[in-house]
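Fold this: DUF4145 domain-containing protein
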Amino acid sequence: MISAEEFIKPLGSGFTAKSAPQQVVIFGWYLHAVRDQANFGTGDIGACFDAAHVARPPNIAATLAKLVERKDVLRSGNSFRLSANARSAMERMLPVRTSTVSTTKLLNDLIPRVANPVQQTFLNETLRCFKQDAFRAAIVMAWNLAYSHVCDRILASHVVTFNAQKKVTYPKLPDITKATDFEDYKESQVIEICRGARILDATVCKHLTAQLNRRNSAAHPSSATFVAAQAEDTITDLVNNVLLNPAV
C-alpha cells in the first residue's frame, strides 16, 4: 500500500510550504483514497505526519475544528471526513502524479513477461482502463490478472498439495484438475487453502485478501468513488507482491 510519505512525494517541498489546514486535508484525502477509510480521527492524521516525516501542526484537533467551520471537513462525534468540495479540490490538485506515470510503466514493462493469452488480455485491459481513468474497472482487471496467475501456479506446481489441503478445509468442493475447476471456488477460499497448505506465505495471502476486498467494493454496485491513488495501490501491490514475486 502506498505510504503517506510516498503519497506526498510528488508535491515535493510544496507540501511543507502549505498551511496546516491544507496539509491536514491532503492527509485526509490520503486516508480516504488510499487507506479506504470512510472516516478518520486526529490520531490518524497525526500518524500520517509521523509516517511522512513531517512535523505535526501544533494542534491537529484545533485545525480540524477550523476545517469543520469552513465546511471542508464534516464531523460526526470524534470522526471526520472530507466534504465533497474538498474531495474535488484534491482530485484537481493531484490529477497526474509521479506514481501514475510509474504505474503505467510497471504495466507496460510487464507485457513481454506475460505469456498466458488470458492473462495478456487481463493485462491489456488493466492498462487501457487505467490510462482512461476508469479506475474502478482497472482495479477489477488487475485483480483478475493476479488471481489468474495464482491459479496457474497452483495447477503447474501445487495441485496435489492444494487438493490435499482442500479436503481438510473445504471437503465438499471438487478437486482441482483443470483451470475451469476454480470456478467452483470463491477467491477467498483459494487464498485460505493456499495459506493452509503453505503454497503461499502469510504475507502474500495478506496482500491478496486486502486487494480482494477492494476488488469486491469496486465490482459491486455502490456509491463508493474510486480514484487514481486506489487503482495505483492495487496495481503496484498485485504486480510487485504477486505477479513478480518469485515465491508465488
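The mean pLDDT is 92. DSSP finds twelve helices and two strands in the chain.
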